[in-house]
Amino acid sequence: MKKLIYLTIVAATGFVLLYISRFWLFSLWDRPGLFDIKALPPQGGLLRSWLRGTDFVPFELMIWAICGFLILTALEKIFDWFKRQL
């Protein structure tokens, strides 16, 4: 049961990371955004809009990859910590 919960958390995190990136392929909701929140457009790519106006736009892919790696590594450490505590 724990593995199913862990898998669900990692899948949801991967889904969010994919939505934040420019690699989001799906248009699951209509404009202006999810639940009419304009900050959640159907085409994804949030990181690019967050970086707009800064000098970091050319490094969007590298920033996304490093942050994704750090987030997934932190999840792994949290899961390991829970295994030791139980």
Q: What is the H/E order?
A: HHH
Rough shape?
A: flat
Strand element count: 0
Could you give the distance between the termini?
14 Å
Number of helices: 3
> How can the largest sheet be summarized?
none
Strand composition percent? under 5%
Output the structural class. mainly alpha
- Radius of gyration from the alpha-carbon trace, in angstroms: 16 Å
Mean pLDDT: 86
Low-confidence stretches: none
Helix content: 55-70%
Subunit arrangement of the protein? single chain
What do these coordinates show?
The protein has 86 residues and is mainly α. The chain is 59% helix and 0% strand. The protein is built from three helices and no strands. It has helices at residues 2-20, 46-51, 60-85. The mean pLDDT is 86.
